[in-house]
Amino acid sequence: MTAEEIAIVVAVGPLGRGKSRLGPSLSADDRRQLVLAMLEDVLAAIFEAHSGPTFVVTPDAEVGPVARALGAQVLRDAGEGTNAAIETAIANARIAAAPAVLVIQGDLPQITPADVRRCLDALASVERGAVLVPGDDGGTSVLGIRPPFGMPSAFGPQSAQRHREAALEARIPLQELAIAALAADVDTVADLDRVRGAVGPATAALLARITVGAAGEGGAS
Length: 221
Description:
Mean pLDDT: 90
Order of helices and strands: EHEHEHHEHEEHEHH
Number of helices: 8
Low-confidence stretches: 214-221
Strand order of the largest sheet: 3-2-1-4-6-5-7
Distance between the termini: 53 Å
Strand content: 15-25%
Helix content: 25-40%
Oligomer: single chain
């Protein structure tokens, strides 16, 4: 298997519920724009590193045109959470037929093509197994599975440990990659401040236009 045969999946939830923990600091519209800007940077990094199949799975009709314009194929899910979305994606014939799937979180605007390539190469190097990039909060930034049905996903709080346990239960080897740039996703103002200097151009341009305030839904101060 080559890395280009791996199917990449990015799950994006309903924009109206995205980044709710930023609610006191960003307006609802700014939060929606932030989700889409981060997705743009994630997909840009993916496509610079990978010429194989790339999918965005989402229940939100507003996400589809953005993802397609960037080159991704779009799958619709029922909006029942990240793990259900990934199950929907893996059940798709095009992804199920791939030798492996690499799930990349959509809120990693600091991801680089080199990070994507490192994950792809690690997954391509095994006959059967999983690749995990844990977050510094105990979550999961990237999860690779070969074959796609090799183990279930378990995204959510402290998911890195649940993915370790799932790999053990499925009796497949697990590689863990420590990638500093992917250690933090963007859920809070503190997260934004931490990654602000390293984000891709779409997120950087948005952050230059909006004000992250501490008071009120409007975000501007």
